[in-house]
Amino acid sequence: MGMWIVIIIVLFVLGSMMALKPSGIDQRLDKLRMTARRLQLNPKLVACPDWIKGKDNEYGRGMMGQYGLILEDTHLPYTRYQMIDGQWRPDNNFVDTTKDELTLTVPSAIRANQSNTHTIVKKTNISLDKIPLDLPVSIEPYVKGLLTKANSIVIYWEDIAYVRPATNPAYEQKLIESDLLALKEKLEQWVLQMQKSL
Would you call 82 helix, strand, or coil by DSSP? Predict the structure, then answer.
């Protein structure tokens, strides 16, 4: 009887230790995000924005990877693009109401007594409209959206699908860096293209 108790305790301890070990997919995802961080792509796991089709092809549902590139001495317009049929398409529901830097700033003591009903609506920058993604084949099917604002460009994609064996059977750890470098290069190209149209 004492032998059975020892065996049960040993199995319990081993089971607890095995449960603490992260799964293979979690280890792959960690490697992907750490490589992206090293390449200054600033990866984050965020709730799917309400303008992007997420889980079950519903807008704003689920979680997805947000990889952003911050560019010093660059000013980009506030725009949103969705990936439709392998091309960037402007978000039709997006209207930029941010104020220009050249507008007069009224002190808050005066503003408190006045209602500000005048809103400036700027024309959306559509310089990337119908531009093909042209990303590595292991990344492209999972890209969902693109956001530019101030000095950053952000791409939303299902990074977990990149490392899952079911969705990416050709996954190889040695290709992570080259795929992310291609993504970074594309983000920089899109920034240059947007700046040409400003």
Answer: strand
Instruction: Give a yes or no: residue 156 inside a domain.
Output: yes
- Asked whether residue 89 is domain-assigned, the answer is yes
Write down the pTM of the prediction: 0.77
Each residue of 162-177: pLDDT tens digit? 999 999 888 899 999 9
Going by C-alpha positions, the residue among 69, 79, 52, 80 that lies closest to residue 142 is: 52
pLDDT digits (tens, 9 = 90+) for 20-63: 778 889 999 999 999 999 999 999 999 999 999 887 778 888 89
| Range(s) of the domain holding residue 85 | 41-196
Helices and strands counted in the chain (H then E) = 5, 6
Q: Given the DSSP bridges, would you call strands 76-84 and 87-90 parallel, antiparallel or unpaired?
A: antiparallel
- List, in sequence order, every residue forming a beta bridge with 96; answer none if it has no partner: 122
Burial of 53 (0-12, 13-18, 19+ CB in 10 A): middle
Q: How far apart are CA 108 and CA 55, in angstroms?
A: 43
- Residue 187, SS3? helix
